[in-house]
Amino acid sequence: MNLLQSIKRQIPNLITLGNLTCGVIATYYAAQGPGYLDIAAYFIIGGIFLDFFDGLAARLLGVASPVGKELDSLADVVTSGVAPSLILFSAAPVFPVWQGMIAYIALLMPAFAAYRLAKFNLDTRQSHSFLGLPAPSNALIWVGVALLFSRYSCSYNIISTWVYVVLIVLSLITDILMISELPMFSLKFNFKDLSWKTNRIQYIFLLGCIVIIALTRQWYAISLIILWYIIFSIITQRKPSQQ
Protein backbone atom coordinates (compact mmCIF):
# COMPACT_ATOMS: atom_id res chain seq x y z
CA MET A 1 0.00 0.00 0.00
CA ASN A 2 2.83 2.38 0.81
CA LEU A 3 4.42 1.62 -2.57
CA LEU A 4 1.17 2.37 -4.41
CA GLN A 5 0.76 5.60 -2.47
CA SER A 6 4.33 6.60 -3.35
CA ILE A 7 3.73 5.89 -7.02
CA LYS A 8 0.48 7.88 -6.99
CA ARG A 9 2.25 10.79 -5.33
CA GLN A 10 4.83 10.91 -8.12
CA ILE A 11 2.41 10.82 -11.08
CA PRO A 12 1.93 14.64 -11.21
CA ASN A 13 5.68 15.12 -10.86
CA LEU A 14 6.32 12.77 -13.78
CA ILE A 15 3.91 14.81 -15.89
CA THR A 16 5.77 17.97 -14.84
CA LEU A 17 9.08 16.38 -15.80
CA GLY A 18 7.50 15.58 -19.17
CA ASN A 19 6.81 19.30 -19.50
CA LEU A 20 10.44 20.04 -18.66
CA THR A 21 11.68 17.48 -21.19
CA CYS A 22 9.50 19.03 -23.91
CA GLY A 23 10.99 22.40 -23.01
CA VAL A 24 14.55 21.11 -23.27
CA ILE A 25 13.85 19.55 -26.68
CA ALA A 26 12.13 22.74 -27.84
CA THR A 27 15.17 24.74 -26.70
CA TYR A 28 17.48 22.46 -28.68
CA TYR A 29 15.51 22.83 -31.91
CA ALA A 30 14.99 26.58 -31.47
CA ALA A 31 18.77 26.96 -31.20
CA GLN A 32 19.25 25.17 -34.54
CA GLY A 33 17.90 28.13 -36.49
CA PRO A 34 14.82 29.18 -38.48
CA GLY A 35 14.44 25.84 -40.22
CA TYR A 36 13.57 24.12 -36.96
CA LEU A 37 11.32 26.70 -35.29
CA ASP A 38 8.15 24.77 -36.10
CA ILE A 39 9.49 21.68 -34.32
CA ALA A 40 10.41 23.84 -31.31
CA ALA A 41 6.90 25.31 -31.35
CA TYR A 42 5.24 21.88 -31.32
CA PHE A 43 7.30 20.78 -28.30
CA ILE A 44 6.40 23.98 -26.45
CA ILE A 45 2.73 23.24 -27.13
CA GLY A 46 3.28 19.71 -25.80
CA GLY A 47 4.95 21.05 -22.68
CA ILE A 48 2.18 23.55 -21.98
CA PHE A 49 -0.38 20.77 -22.50
CA LEU A 50 1.39 18.69 -19.84
CA ASP A 51 1.67 21.76 -17.62
CA PHE A 52 -2.12 21.96 -17.55
CA PHE A 53 -2.54 18.32 -16.59
CA ASP A 54 0.07 18.04 -13.83
CA GLY A 55 -1.90 20.33 -11.53
CA LEU A 56 -5.16 18.67 -12.54
CA ALA A 57 -3.70 15.23 -11.79
CA ALA A 58 -2.42 16.42 -8.40
CA ARG A 59 -5.86 17.69 -7.44
CA LEU A 60 -7.71 14.61 -8.69
CA LEU A 61 -5.33 12.26 -6.89
CA GLY A 62 -5.22 14.42 -3.76
CA VAL A 63 -1.42 14.55 -3.79
CA ALA A 64 -0.70 18.25 -4.31
CA SER A 65 2.58 19.18 -2.63
CA PRO A 66 4.99 22.14 -2.26
CA VAL A 67 7.62 20.13 -4.16
CA GLY A 68 5.27 19.72 -7.11
CA LYS A 69 4.51 23.44 -7.12
CA GLU A 70 8.18 24.38 -7.20
CA LEU A 71 9.00 21.71 -9.79
CA ASP A 72 6.21 23.06 -11.99
CA SER A 73 7.72 26.53 -11.93
CA LEU A 74 11.20 25.22 -12.74
CA ALA A 75 9.80 23.36 -15.75
CA ASP A 76 7.88 26.43 -16.91
CA VAL A 77 11.01 28.57 -16.85
CA VAL A 78 12.43 26.30 -19.56
CA THR A 79 9.29 25.55 -21.59
CA SER A 80 7.67 28.98 -21.33
CA GLY A 81 10.80 31.08 -20.88
CA VAL A 82 14.00 29.76 -22.41
CA ALA A 83 12.49 27.95 -25.41
CA PRO A 84 10.29 30.81 -26.72
CA SER A 85 13.10 33.33 -26.18
CA LEU A 86 15.37 31.24 -28.41
CA ILE A 87 12.63 31.09 -31.04
CA LEU A 88 12.66 34.89 -31.22
CA PHE A 89 16.46 35.06 -31.00
CA SER A 90 16.95 32.51 -33.79
CA ALA A 91 14.50 34.32 -36.06
CA ALA A 92 16.75 37.40 -36.20
CA PRO A 93 17.62 38.65 -39.69
CA VAL A 94 21.21 39.41 -40.67
CA PHE A 95 22.06 42.64 -38.86
CA PRO A 96 25.19 44.78 -38.99
CA VAL A 97 27.34 43.93 -35.97
CA TRP A 98 26.23 46.82 -33.78
CA GLN A 99 22.55 46.34 -34.63
CA GLY A 100 22.82 42.63 -33.91
CA MET A 101 22.63 43.47 -30.21
CA ILE A 102 18.88 43.99 -30.75
CA ALA A 103 18.42 40.22 -30.98
CA TYR A 104 19.83 39.72 -27.50
CA ILE A 105 16.83 41.55 -26.05
CA ALA A 106 14.87 38.37 -26.82
CA LEU A 107 16.97 36.54 -24.24
CA LEU A 108 15.53 38.67 -21.44
CA MET A 109 12.33 36.62 -21.62
CA PRO A 110 13.48 33.77 -19.30
CA ALA A 111 14.43 36.29 -16.59
CA PHE A 112 10.99 37.89 -16.67
CA ALA A 113 9.30 34.47 -16.79
CA ALA A 114 11.32 33.23 -13.80
CA TYR A 115 10.46 36.32 -11.76
CA ARG A 116 6.78 36.03 -12.72
CA LEU A 117 6.67 32.35 -11.69
CA ALA A 118 8.40 33.00 -8.35
CA LYS A 119 6.03 35.88 -7.68
CA PHE A 120 3.02 33.74 -8.62
CA ASN A 121 4.02 31.00 -6.17
CA LEU A 122 3.92 33.46 -3.27
CA ASP A 123 0.88 35.51 -4.33
CA THR A 124 -2.33 34.29 -2.68
CA ARG A 125 -4.43 36.71 -4.74
CA GLN A 126 -4.11 34.61 -7.90
CA SER A 127 -6.04 31.49 -6.97
CA HIS A 128 -8.99 32.20 -9.31
CA SER A 129 -7.56 34.74 -11.76
CA PHE A 130 -4.19 36.22 -12.71
CA LEU A 131 -2.25 39.38 -12.05
CA GLY A 132 -0.02 39.84 -15.06
CA LEU A 133 0.32 37.68 -18.15
CA PRO A 134 0.91 33.98 -17.34
CA ALA A 135 4.25 32.69 -18.66
CA PRO A 136 2.65 29.90 -20.77
CA SER A 137 0.33 32.46 -22.40
CA ASN A 138 3.33 34.58 -23.31
CA ALA A 139 5.08 31.51 -24.72
CA LEU A 140 2.10 30.79 -26.98
CA ILE A 141 2.54 34.18 -28.66
CA TRP A 142 5.97 33.08 -29.85
CA VAL A 143 4.72 29.61 -30.74
CA GLY A 144 2.32 31.28 -33.16
CA VAL A 145 5.11 33.48 -34.54
CA ALA A 146 7.31 30.42 -35.09
CA LEU A 147 4.54 28.60 -36.94
CA LEU A 148 3.90 31.71 -39.04
CA PHE A 149 7.57 31.86 -40.00
CA SER A 150 7.51 28.16 -40.83
CA ARG A 151 4.34 28.58 -42.88
CA TYR A 152 5.96 31.15 -45.13
CA SER A 153 9.41 29.53 -45.08
CA CYS A 154 10.98 32.51 -43.40
CA SER A 155 14.74 32.53 -42.95
CA TYR A 156 17.45 34.95 -41.92
CA ASN A 157 17.22 36.70 -45.29
CA ILE A 158 13.42 36.77 -45.55
CA ILE A 159 12.37 38.27 -42.20
CA SER A 160 12.71 42.02 -42.68
CA THR A 161 14.53 44.12 -40.13
CA TRP A 162 11.53 46.30 -39.28
CA VAL A 163 9.30 43.26 -38.67
CA TYR A 164 11.90 41.84 -36.31
CA VAL A 165 12.23 45.14 -34.44
CA VAL A 166 8.42 45.19 -33.99
CA LEU A 167 8.59 41.65 -32.57
CA ILE A 168 11.38 42.63 -30.19
CA VAL A 169 9.34 45.60 -28.95
CA LEU A 170 6.34 43.29 -28.54
CA SER A 171 8.48 40.87 -26.53
CA LEU A 172 9.52 43.67 -24.18
CA ILE A 173 5.89 44.66 -23.71
CA THR A 174 4.79 41.09 -22.94
CA ASP A 175 7.81 40.61 -20.65
CA ILE A 176 6.69 43.60 -18.61
CA LEU A 177 3.10 42.36 -18.65
CA MET A 178 4.26 39.07 -17.09
CA ILE A 179 5.47 40.84 -13.95
CA SER A 180 2.82 43.56 -13.94
CA GLU A 181 -0.19 43.89 -11.64
CA LEU A 182 -2.62 43.97 -14.58
CA PRO A 183 -5.66 41.84 -13.70
CA MET A 184 -6.19 39.11 -16.30
CA PHE A 185 -9.65 37.55 -16.26
CA SER A 186 -10.05 33.84 -15.66
CA LEU A 187 -10.79 31.67 -18.69
CA LYS A 188 -12.80 29.28 -16.54
CA PHE A 189 -16.57 29.27 -16.89
CA ASN A 190 -18.81 29.10 -13.84
CA PHE A 191 -20.34 25.69 -14.59
CA LYS A 192 -22.81 26.09 -11.72
CA ASP A 193 -24.38 29.00 -13.59
CA LEU A 194 -23.70 29.16 -17.34
CA SER A 195 -25.87 32.23 -17.88
CA TRP A 196 -24.67 35.15 -19.99
CA LYS A 197 -24.74 37.46 -16.95
CA THR A 198 -22.40 35.27 -14.91
CA ASN A 199 -19.98 34.35 -17.73
CA ARG A 200 -20.31 37.39 -19.99
CA ILE A 201 -16.58 38.07 -20.23
CA GLN A 202 -15.75 34.44 -21.00
CA TYR A 203 -18.46 34.23 -23.67
CA ILE A 204 -17.30 37.41 -25.41
CA PHE A 205 -13.70 36.22 -25.31
CA LEU A 206 -14.72 32.84 -26.76
CA LEU A 207 -16.66 34.52 -29.57
CA GLY A 208 -13.60 36.64 -30.35
CA CYS A 209 -11.46 33.50 -30.52
CA ILE A 210 -13.92 31.89 -32.93
CA VAL A 211 -13.77 34.96 -35.19
CA ILE A 212 -9.95 34.96 -35.15
CA ILE A 213 -9.78 31.26 -36.01
CA ALA A 214 -12.42 31.62 -38.75
CA LEU A 215 -10.59 34.55 -40.36
CA THR A 216 -7.07 33.08 -40.21
CA ARG A 217 -7.54 29.30 -40.30
CA GLN A 218 -3.84 29.01 -39.46
CA TRP A 219 -1.81 27.98 -36.44
CA TYR A 220 -0.57 31.55 -35.95
CA ALA A 221 -4.07 32.34 -34.70
CA ILE A 222 -2.60 31.23 -31.35
CA SER A 223 -0.63 34.48 -31.16
CA LEU A 224 -3.64 36.59 -32.08
CA ILE A 225 -5.81 34.85 -29.49
CA ILE A 226 -3.31 35.61 -26.71
CA LEU A 227 -3.06 39.24 -27.87
CA TRP A 228 -6.88 39.36 -27.85
CA TYR A 229 -6.79 37.98 -24.30
CA ILE A 230 -4.41 40.77 -23.23
CA ILE A 231 -6.41 43.53 -24.92
CA PHE A 232 -9.73 42.26 -23.57
CA SER A 233 -8.27 41.98 -20.07
CA ILE A 234 -7.19 45.62 -20.28
CA ILE A 235 -10.66 46.65 -21.48
CA THR A 236 -12.39 44.72 -18.71
CA GLN A 237 -9.76 45.58 -16.10
CA ARG A 238 -10.93 44.95 -12.58
CA LYS A 239 -9.32 45.45 -9.21
CA PRO A 240 -7.71 42.24 -7.91
CA SER A 241 -9.57 40.61 -5.06
CA GLN A 242 -8.18 41.28 -1.64
CA GLN A 243 -7.59 38.43 0.77
Describe the structure.
The protein has helices at residues 2-31, 37-61, 66-90, 109-122, 135-151, 161-178, 200-216, 221-235, and strands spanning 130-131, 183-184. The chain has 243 residues and is an all-alpha fold. It has a single domain, classed as Up-down Bundle (Four Helix Bundle (Hemerythrin (Met), subunit A)). A two-stranded antiparallel ribbon has the order 1-2. Helix 1 (2-31) packs antiparallel against helix 2 (37-61). The relative contact order is 0.12.
Biggest sheet, spatial arrangement of strands? 1-2
- Portion in beta strands: under 5%
Can you tell me the CATH architecture? Up-down Bundle
Element pattern in H and E: HHHHEHHEHH
Q: Report, as a whole number of angstroms, the end-to-end distance.
A: 39 Å
Helical residue percent?
55-70%
Major β-sheet profile: 2 strands, antiparallel
Main CATH class = Mainly Alpha
CATH topology, by name, is Four Helix Bundle (Hemerythrin (Met), subunit A)
Silhouette: globular
Unreliable spans: none
With helices defined by DSSP (H or I, 4 residues minimum), what is the helix count? 8
Round the mean pLDDT to the nearest integer and report it. 84
Structural class: mainly alpha
Radius of gyration: 19 Å
Q: Summary?
A:
The protein has helices at 2-31, 37-61, 66-90, 109-122, 135-151, 161-178, 200-216, 221-235, and strands at 130-131, 183-184. By secondary structure, it is mainly α. The model has no long low-confidence stretch (mean pLDDT 84).
